[in-house]
Amino acid sequence: MATILTEEQILELDKKHVWHPYSSFDMSLAPFPVVSADGVRLTLKDGRQLIDGMASWWSVLHGYNHPVLKAAAKDQIDNMAHVMFGGLTHEPAVKLCKTLVDITPTGLNKVFISDSGSVAAEVAIKMAFQYWISQGQKQKNKIITVRNGYHGDTFITMSVSDPENGMHHMFDNVLMEHIFVEAPQCMFDDVFSEHHVQDLKQTLVEKSDSIAAMILEPIVQGTGGMRFYSPAYLKRVSELCDEFNVLLICDEIATGFGRTGKLFACEYADISPDILCVGKALTGGFMSLAATLTTDKVAKGISEGEAGVFMHGPTFMANPLACSVANASLELLLQGNWQALVSNLQKQLLKGLLPAKDLEQVADVRVLGAIGVIELHEPVHMPTVQPMFVEEGIWVRPFGKLVYVLPPFVMSDEDVASLTAGMVRVVGRI
Ligand SMILES: *Cc1c(COP(=O)(O)O)cnc(C)c1O
Fold it and tell me: Closest ligand 1 atom to the C-alpha of 149?
């Protein structure tokens, strides 16, 4: 395909007109123009190739430019790229919903498809509120959550994301106030004891009458600190939600589709929430798509309520192109050997990252499934550090004190070794 802009022109226009995630217009750090991606490698405009440690933020599972995903997209484009979902339905959507129902924890039978993770979490919370309104319990209008969570950048999701890492201070005049309890302190390998849920229990005793739902990321708190916590803690959270008549929302937008070593992280605790969000890896990183699943009980409650319908409906809901690619990606995942790939990645990441443990600037090294984390004592200085990774031939995008990778599942041992060695070298020079 003809490219007509030079690297300088791209950077100039970018600097002038384009917002990037969490960016400002007077930041000195320019982005790197990328022209293509194949397998686990990104190709920059200047010809350099980088081994991709980020999987485009948790989403690329089978590698970039995958022939099966491309074929699914091309077939669907020739048929219909999009059609509205109000009053119409189509095979790509019903197939996708059926697969999601089949592979997620039991009881989640009703699927609402949306376009991004934040919207899927937004929809989950709206379902919970609308459920209780329908039950005549309008006073249940708060969400309870744990600290260090992350559920998106829209207003309700921001209001239940970590108040310190998040944007609560800046937006305290406009954010709705929800209820925070202590972050999980019982980490992945720790022995659970009842005192780990003391704060949650006490808060539920005092406030459950006003609480619609509890939302949290199962097992891995991603953006809020890359913290891996105990399945036994999650199990107890689920029991307490039942006991106190609070719906449980599990946000598997980051953890879903095998990333943690289970297909869904809820499986570690053998729980089934009332509402579950998926996103990120749903199309194998090909395009934006997300979904919110719920139980017959919640769906029936909403449908029998005053409104009679669930009050949400995105214009591009269940876009056939995205659904087709999701179906192809899930088929690749489920018919492939993802468990073996992820458990091997866990081994290789641990082997490659452990040497960082001896560095004095490093506070912790941890790995779960295909997630590898080096936690530093101090936040990194991005304008210095970002180009250092590129010089090493790897794509790693740290935030705060966290230098982490989530490789596509298909990364070879050799590439993992190069990726982790580059990370350790860069961290060593910080
Ligand atoms: C990324 C993420 C979201 C938000 O998804 P977007 O697609 O970026 O809107 C929500 N929850 C979790 C746990 C996430 O990791």
Answer: 13
